[in-house]
Amino acid sequence: MNNFLNINEITLTELESILEDAHRLKKSLEPGFKGLRRDNRLEGCNLGLYFQKPSTRTRLSFETGTMQLGGKVINIRPDEIHLNEGESIEDTAKILSLFLDAIVIRLFKEEHLYEFANSANIPVINGLTNDSHPCQVLTDIFTFQELRGNISEKTVVWFGVANNVLNSFLHASTHFNFKIIFCGPEKFKPQKKVLDLRPRGKERFFEIESDPIKAVKQADLIVTDKWVSMHDKPLNEKDLEELMRFQINKTLVDKGKKEVLFMHCLPASKGLEVTDEMFKDKRSVVFEEAENRMHLQKAILCWCLKKIS
Length: 309
Ligand code: CP
Ligand code: NVA
Hints:
Elements: H1 12-27, E1 46-51, H2 57-68, E2 72-76, H3 89-99, E3 102-106, H4 110-119, E4 124-126, H5 134-148, E5 155-159, H6 164-176, E6 179-183, H7 192-195, E7 206-208, H8 212-218, E8 221-224, H9 237-243, H10 250-253, E9 261-264, H11 276-279, H12 286-304
Parallel strand pairs: 1-2, 1-3, 3-4, 5-6, 5-8, 6-7, 8-9
Helix pairs in contact: 1-12, 2-12, 3-4, 5-6, 5-12
The protein binds phosphoric acid mono(formamide)ester and norvaline.
Norvaline is lined by residues 128, 133, 163-165, 225-226, 229-230, 265.
């Protein structure tokens, strides 16, 4: 059994086997109802979903994907179990392991994810914490490679505020050999503790560029996210004003490479980190990213349960 907690803890060979399986799973889809069973790999599997924060994409893509492979999904609402209201993470993880075969959890604190995984006897998948979002980032790599080929030696420019999604990109960059340029206000740059996690000798894979035009010219992939994540406090007027300089808009992207792609994990705040025009631009692949969540996460789940093909 494998946990899928953070990309930097999984070998490149294993990650590549997940990406390859996701391609196979996507290619083998035939037209028909979205809930149609496509494969029996997860027959008899009970997948639990426990989300302490809202989710549209992660939850639905895991639900649909699991059903397509013959498995069942049990949604566990935070307000209907005893966790944090008289029952510990350790006991909850042990009890849920008695009835489920795998679980996707979306928590606030990263340390709670590890506490849960260390006590569980089933595979645990990180569905996002305040500090990471590995399912999203592996999907983004899948989407980039599907459209533009190998991501190795490419440059990803992250605009705006460093957050959980960027952290997972940083985890992935040293494995997959791509460079990340952060372009945003100094105050919102990635934390030292995340950069320090990267293996020695891999420092060249990260740079800071405060000029959006210089940054965009280097980008093979432009990425941004909401400036305020679900766990963040609202921004003050001064920060908002400063961040507007890093908005992704057509004028900026037109200064970049012809083949550049734009990604956003969604949900988006149009008019802030990205304009509506750029969101709908042909270089924007936000809906491809969202659709690929399902294909990639089917492969993650199969890898966790040693059912990869
Ligand atoms: N991108 C993403 O994880 O979306 P949800 O919060 O809707 O799951
Ligand atoms: N950074 C965002 C990602 C949402 C999918 C958040 O944590 O709210």
